Amino acid sequence: MEVALEGKKPDSIIREERPLVDKNVTYIENSVDMIDLNQRVVFTADGKKLAYDYIILATGSVPDPDSIAGLRAASLNFHTSTEDSLKIWDALQQFRKGHIVLGIAGVPHKCPPSPNEGTFLLDDYLRKSGKRDDAKITFVTPYPRPYPAEAMSKVVEPLFQKRGIDVVTFFNLESVDPTKKELYSLEGDTLSYDLLIMVPPHRGADVIIKSGLGDKDGWIPTDKYTMNVKGYDNAYAIGDCTDIPVSKTGVTAHLEAKVAANNIISSIENLGQTHKYTGRINCPFEMGSGKAAFVVGSYEKPVKEIHPSRIRHVMKRGFERIYWRSLTGNLDWLLDTYFGATDIVENSKPTVVSSK
Amino acid sequence: MQVPVAKPTTVVDSRGTMCPGPITDLFRAFRNSSIGDVIELWATDPAAKPDVQTWAKRSGNEVLAIIDENGYTKIQVRIVKKGTAR
Known about the structure:
Number of domains of chain B: 1
CATH topology of chain B: Translation Initiation Factor IF3
Low-confidence stretches of chain A: 344-348
CATH class of chain B: Alpha Beta
CATH architecture of chain B: 2-Layer Sandwich
Number of helices of chain B: 2
CATH topology of the largest domain in chain A: FAD/NAD(P)-binding domain
Oligomer: heterodimer
Largest sheet of chain B: 4 strands, mixed
Helix content of chain A: 25-40%
Low-confidence stretches of chain B: none
CATH architecture of the largest domain in chain A: 3-Layer(bba) Sandwich
């Protein structure tokens, strides 16, 4: 998103994967062709067969613009690749005046705040470049309100109004006509545009669908507390690939990973403990003008109303600097402190149930 | 309490999910539905009822019944209008 709407260089957000992995881990760089949870075997694309005792699936989600007729041809987006994000930045440099439509083409999609964030940053860009007076911005969403969760929508809605951003709700995109530059909804509405930036709907990974491990959209049936793949004591799923009812974000993947890892350790060491994910979400939410909020909630507590501030923006951008180190697990003490200190809804530490 | 008025074509179980879980699940079912289908949404989130009612009114679809069960609500929607604005 920052590449698309702030002109950030893609090199600054990409790292080689191998150096990020602990030296005690055998890292195999290969595509997976098939996973057999019953036989406990993973087949790689080059024909190798890897047997395992425990497995954690983290196959992510796949943006799928081809699932809506005309969408790929008509719309730019900042979810598929840095190259596609750069196309938005280039298009904005060329843009002089007209109607920009930005929104959600389908659900689910990763990072729920990102369509709103993109709209705020688009407005920022147009103001800074002196083009805002010649641009109309419309945010389009299938949901009843600008942000899906009502508490945060109460924060977003007045800010959109203040910035002159129009909102079209209950617009489930059916198709796009790139020639006429029109959007059509399943609700029967039509919307025209000059520049279109839509977040595509997402689906599960091809390998999950091919292996028959997902539902009809490729999401893996997963126990939302233990992170076990349903029906398998030695298989876990974390991150975007699951079907659990939380946001598809990096924070949730991180917290779920700790639960899955601790449950594997408990099983190997015969500790008799069951670690449980609380459903904690903590999505950073850019709201323009150098301010940000967070979307915070859990399974038991709905999302709360949190207003944007400069310090939250600094926290978000600051975390980007330590993100790569956090992947090693060496900064978990810092993240645990953060989640404890910001836990306005409940104790966010994963619960542990001991049977011993 | 109302009683179900139609046999559902699709049952969508969103119990245990919070907003926007139920309405998201309804939209996924709506996308795959045909005219005449009855989608029955099961939800524990209280926001599901007003959200579905508002969406149905706006989209021209029909809420057939809202049934309070033990700890959750069943909402039946008949799809009478879908797409093709052109």
